[in-house]
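User: Okay, second chain of the day. Same drill as before: sequence in, structure tokens out.
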Amino acid sequence: MRKTIRGVACAAMAACIFFAGCKGDSDTVKIGGIFPLSGDVAVYGVEARKGVMLAIEEINTAGGVNGKKVDLVYEDDEGNPEKSVNAYNKLTAKDKVNVIIGSLTSGCTIAITSKAQAQKVVVVAPAATAEDVTNAGDFIFRACFIDAFQGTVAGRFAADDLGTKNAAILYDNGNDYSVGLKDSFMAAYAQQGGVIVANESYTGSDVDFNAQITKIKAANPDIVYLPDYYNKVALVAKQLRAQGINTPIAGGDGWDGLTENAGDEVLNGYYSNHYAADSTDTKVQNFVKAFQAKFGTIPNSFAALGYDSMYLIRDAMLAAGSFDSTAIKNALAAINGSYVTGRLSFDAKHNPVKSAVIVEIVRQNGNLTNVYKATVDPQ
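Assistant: Same drill. Structure tokens below.
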């Protein structure tokens, strides 16, 4: 009998440790993080982690969550889906987390969502915008809008706000993010009366785009849509300008990082984004001020999304009064609140219903910077 009781107690203790929230196991609650801290899209992960860290510092200074301080345990997946899975396995098996923030790109996030759903691990993806991200089930959330929405926003903006009539597209045909934005941009632009006069593609390993750009130049577009990540956009934009194409260029949130990694070739550039650092909104300004004080730089959208992801989790834990992942998941689904990247609630697939902003890349005081241009609300 005493053996049986001891066995039950041990099993209960093991379960308590796994869920990292049972009273008495520690004075902290662990949150997992998976970020690309190195590799081609490192700026996304580095900035998102900073946003999460700032949020945790504020939360802990204010007393923590449900009597516990928050501890971030994170891994670098290098923007590689296989390494995202390795990071997930380590965080859940060794560190015993049941809530994970990450990863940043859609492919890396999709690589872990089925495992997370099966194991009832809550995933909050800060910036994974592909529509399929939340298809794995109800334990998967994201803090960002989806590709279909931001592609639509860009199509409307190009036609209505910039007054263009003809558009060219140059995209990566092997990148779901790039393809998704391209498709939704084309549909929205056509709906607004615009005409696609050139539709050219490349592969992710390409570095010479002159053949495609020659065709685009011959089509004489009013705007060129470049739905890709900042490192590739910088290469393409330089070759566009070198061939004398000085029309506006536009893209999605993957452009965030261009101001630190490109030159004047990206001027007259516009992209859909999750927030604008120069907004007059009090929440935004308080965040920007706190981020600058801690890190010495203006936060980009990935920092804002990381910050919001942590506060979403905090708010769900408070509402649930628990660290149990099912309780957190249910509380997250019911959230309707104001965050740095806008007022947010979740639809049936746990995609946020929120606005998007358009920012323009300009040169101010000798430096490239993003300035707020417009807000587009969901319809």
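Residues 2-145+281-346 form a domain with the Rossmann fold fold (CATH 3.40.50.2300).

User: Thanks, on to the next one.
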